Amino acid sequence: MEAVGATGNLRHQFRSYRDYVASLAKDHPEFGWLNLFLAKPGANPSQISVLIADSLNNTMQLENFSSKVSECHDALQQRPIEVKTRIILVSYHQTWSIDRDIADSIGFAFDIDPTFFWAHFDHREARVDRLVLSDKA
Q1: 21, 41, 65, 74: which is deepest, by most CB within 10 A?
Q2: Contact indicator for 88, 50 with CB cutoff of 8 Å
Q3: Which residues pair with 71 in a beta bridge?
Q4: Taking a C-beta distance cutoff of 8 angstroms, is the pair 62, 48 a contact?
Q5: CA distance 129 to 13
Q6: Structure confidence by residue, pLDDT tens digits, 78-135
Q7: What is the DSSP letter of 43?
Q8: Maximal C-alpha separation, the chain
């Protein structure tokens, strides 16, 4: 697959990462599945945990955003200038259960190349599971 790449700053061109992927899917059909995946709610979004670790004054400050999507979104958008290193750990039981708002927030905040999410969330081979999205919208 040819890498499409992020635009450099999605916030200037799109309202959300979902909008960006939907735009790509029009010209790149290989992103149709990712577009569908991001548009549908996860089966168990409450099973996600997001930990943000910031390096500040030679210490690590940890903040857990489990089940607090809006607070997580705000924290991702606002990084104190004193923070030199930020580590974001997202954990979940099944990728198809991930809260799509978390994926949207991370993709949007960091201009994630959609091929990363396409490869990570693609479960077309696991058709036996009832939670897996169909390729057909």
Answers
A1: 21
A2: yes
A3: none
A4: no
A5: 36
A6: 878 888 888 998 888 777 778 888 888 889 888 889 999 888 876 665 554 444 555 5
A7: S
A8: 50
